[in-house]
Here is the input.
Amino acid sequence: MTRIANRADSEGFVGVFDSGAGGISVLQHLVRALPGEDFRYFGDSANAPYGAKTPDEVYELSANITERMLDEGAKALVIACNTATSAAAATLRRRYPEVPIVGVEPALKPAVLAAGSKKVLVMATQVTLALEKFHRLAERWAANTELETVACVGLVDRIEQGHLDEPDLIDLLEGLVGAYRGEVDRVVLGCTHYPFVRTQIAQVLGDVRFFDGGEGTARQLRRLLTQNDLLREGHDGTVSLASSIDTPEQLALYRWFFNQPV
Here is the structure.
């Protein structure tokens, strides 16, 4: 039976999960915004990428991780994955209405509202772009904007390997988005892995502005923790990293990602 942390217990930890290392980009925003919180991060790299799975498969994986984190005493959860947010967040909130659950979504609104004269490019996974959640977001904020979307097949797999300065990554990006060089000036990074390769994307696209959901996710978590009397302050927060590929090499890779600028 899933144990839900005492709602009045601000000393519980915040669980953060993703299909792999990508959510560590969100974790960095969370740690900066909420330095008093204890964060436990889990990356499901053994099952990555979620973007190539069916929505039902993504939901089952997300539900299993959620249940385990709640059993361990999580006071709140962050789904640091655009695909998992799209496929699972609404159902998980209905299943656990007493738990603050924060998702991440493509930062389409700020990209559309930002000054620019050209098209907005959304880079995301197949599942994120296919689900109704994204289409509703696009209808709401981009009805009068020229929007281009690219399902970046293979990019999550490649980022998970690390070694982000190798030529093959540039070649992959060239094949995915090279056709938009000079055609777009705003790029929505619709997967939490993609902020780790901003520099490489800029090499391919040129002078563009990037938008991702990390900062907004951190603001929403702070709001919900405050609203539910769960915010922890006056404490030196901690961060722990874990992966479904439980090897020293994988954890070293996660620590490397945690120290990369996003």
About this structure: The mean pLDDT is 94. Strands lie at 13-18, 39-43, 74-79, 101-102, 119-124, 147-151, 184-189, 209-211, 239-243. The longest strand covers residues 13-18. Residues 13-104+214-258 form a domain with the Rossmann fold fold (CATH 3.40.50.1860).
